[in-house]
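Dear U.,

For the methods section draft, I wanted the exact inputs and outputs in one place so we can describe them consistently. I've listed the two proteins in the order they'll appear in the manuscript figures. Please don't edit the token lines directly; just add comments below if something needs changing.

First protein:
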Amino acid sequence: MSNELMIRQGFFWGTLIIVGIWELLWPKRQLSVSKAVRWYSNLGIVLLNSFLIRWLFPLLAVGMAALAVEKQWGLLNNIDIPYELAVILSVIVLDMIIYLQHLMFHAVPRLWLLHRMHHSDRDYDVTTGLRFHPIEIAMSMVIKLAAVVAIGPPVMAVLIFEVVLNASAMFNHGNIRLPAAVDRFLRLFIVTPDMHRVHHSEIRRETDSNYGFFLSWWDRLYGTYRAQPEKGHQGMTIGINLFKNPTYSHLHWMLIQPFINRK
């Protein structure tokens, strides 16, 4: 799609600004680390990852979906179902694959060394949802492209999924306050900040729960759902004990974290 980049950039900056303002007006927790350092590092890794992906991959997910349609690759390009149903099913299946990928990056020790950079953030705000190691981002893109080829989703479905995944990652990492009743209702369908914050707990059994990014169904279906942190949202400790030193909040240290002390 010729305007794909404009659409994605619009939703990216729109969500970042809205959630960022929400955090300033109604924060859930008091931050403990300099926001300037964290934002420079977390947004810096986004820029680095964007350049890396554009350099490594001649086709991204939407482009691969267009190629799959042209070549008739994938399941949905070879069965006769209504277009609207194909779009809905594609978004749901792609979200489940992201859930399973996330679970894999926790369960496989070598992959956890990469993924733990996301968890080493000592605070939890909108930029935490963008903080992923470049190697993990490249591996995730390979998995996503393979999923697109296998599923054969409509191009529109992949664009919707990319926008929703990015926006929901920023929303559910937001340091924002939601009324309890609203949170309970929303998490019947989507991942809320209070639901996903549990996943960033220093306690490993809490870290190994609530893997979803958009739809909240998968954690309940696969038995990885945890409603609340043991110590409450104000009392819980966020991050990884190994990287408590504020030095690790800087961009260059974030990049080498997977190669530090493999405990």
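Second protein (the one for the lower panel):
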Amino acid sequence: MILKEITEYLESIAPLRFQESYDNAGLIVGDSEMKVTGAIISLDATEEVVDDAIARGCNIVISHHPIIFKGIKKFNPNYYVDRAVIKAIKNDVALYAIHTNLDNVLQHGVNEKIAQKLSLKNIQTLKPHALAPMESAYEVGSGALGDLEKPMDGASFIAYLKDQMLLKNVRHTKILDGEISKVALCGGAGSFLLPSAIAAGAQVFVTADYKYHEFFDANNQVMIVDIGHYESEHYTIELIHQLVSKKFPNFAAHYTKVMTNPVFYS
């Protein structure tokens, strides 16, 4: 199998035109006509993940986050981005990222996956994007919104969230009175979606990367729960693996053995 068979399939699920302007999704390193021996799937494409691919006889890393976001004028081994790219090129390992384009599609997307892990019903896009008519086949937008199977109080929801998302710690605003039935969520940094969550009538907004002063914006209208960036998106590895394995059942696709989360808790 050649590389472009995989990338074209992934881009049929999450077209590159749906990525944000700051993003760098797509084929970052490699030849689209190269033969692929196996894939390592990871949230990040670090040097250690490239090492994992080499050790396991794989020549493509499919990551959620691109290793390169901005232009690079020099390559040297003093920076982690450069080291990963240099090692990939030297060892003929392709690097492919499926990032905000996978965030921005609901079906088979990052936020739908989180909603499914929470067993939400009536899942829909939290903030739809304006699309050209030719793109109307995709439900595209930011975040997701859904209903819990059974309403629960705030403390019970936090316990449930930690259990379903495999979390040890969360940060959150004050637990409000009343039950939670409608959940808004966004994998990764989603503070920009708080007005949409409130407008949609959600009692809780689950996301990551909230700054101290931004928590005040809840204004006792919704409970914000910050679960961490890696923690909010780690099921994306499972999502991508399922997509690739279902389409190409005889192709070797592996979860990375590397924990790429740069944040530790003590």
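Candidate sentences for the figure legend, describing the second protein: The mean pLDDT is 96. The first helix runs from residue 3 to 13.

Thanks,
Y.
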